Amino acid sequence: MYSMKKYWSGALPEPGVRTVADMANVFARPPSADPATPLYYMYRDLYKTHGDHTWLERHHLRYDITRIPPGVYNGEYTKTKGHYHPENPAGLPYPEVYEVLCGFAYYLLQRRDHTDVLLVPAHAGDTVLIPPGYGHVTINPGREDLVMANLVSTDFVSEYGEIDEMCGAAYYYMKKEGWVANPRYGDPIPMHVMLPEPIPEVGLGEGRSLYDLVGSGDTLNIMNRPEEYMNVLGKYSAAKKRM
After folding, report:
1. Averaged in consecutive runs of 10 residues, what is the pLDDT profile of the chain (243 residues)?
2. Is tRNA-binding among the key words of this record (predicted)?
3. pLDDT score, position 156
């Protein structure tokens, strides 16, 4: 049985599980595996102490861990289903931040208006900010488990419908062909590569884990009020490098 103790010392609830049946519509080709086959596991609303839990609730935040085992299904690497975030009261979509705890990830981000796609490759210890207005899918292209944490606002519910209707994100990552554009989006959307960078403006510096922010003086207000951090978000977008 797989142990999460290396990545989490607190209590773990039973995970939510995405199966082949849940994901069949978003793969390039419907997987031929048993529909009940689990693809990834989501441990939501984690905390190590009651004090941490109170802090997270007070700041309208949630800390989660997701485990994505390696795998290839009809030629495509295992991935998450993908979703967008709705707008906050100020009219700007909620962001999210991830940290890779183990393995290697491709974070595929796409603007909701289908004008831009960002590819962020991330190793263990890297943090990745999902900026407002971008949907996102996480891909495990490696041979080991991808384990990642995230901090996100509790003031919204993720929106899966659009990516589901488009039968996946704008690109699929295939074992043989590499990146393959999803034809339902029309002409291929320009893809850019952006490398993970520290985000000191929100407390994410070198050598500091995502959970280190819980209970600290950093409130991660950017998760709920991104309109107050446009200088950070603008710098993040400017770091794009054409693929």
Report:
1. 83 93 94 94 96 95 97 96 97 96 97 95 94 96 97 97 97 98 97 88 81 84 92 66 40
2. no
3. 97
Nearest alpha carbon to residue 131 among 216, 207, 187, 202: 202
- Adjacent-strand bridge partners of 116: none
Check if the beta carbon of residue 106 is closer than 8 Å to that of residue 119.
yes
In the sheet that holds 61-68, the strands lie side by side as 16-19, 38-43, 61-68, 146-153, 96-102, 127-130
The whole-model pTM stands at 0.94
Provide the H-helix boundaries in the chain. Answer: 20-23, 50-58, 161-165, 230-238
Q: Is 213 helix (H, G, I), strand (E, B) or coil?
A: helix
Side chain identity at 171, as an amino acid letter?
Answer: Y
Count of CB atoms situated within 10 Å of the CB of 16 = 13
Q: Which residues of 202-236 are buried (b: 16+ CB within 10 A; e: fewer)?
A: bbbeeebebbebbbeebbbebbbbbeebeebbeeb
Element (H, E) at 179: strand 178-181
Residue 109: burial class (beta carbons within 10 Å; 0-12, 13-18, 19+): buried
Q: Where are the alpha helices (DSSP H) in 47-155?
A: 50-58
* Highest CATH level, class, for 16-242: mainly beta
The H helix count followed by the E strand count for the chain is 4, 15
All structural domains of the chain with their residue ranges:
16-242
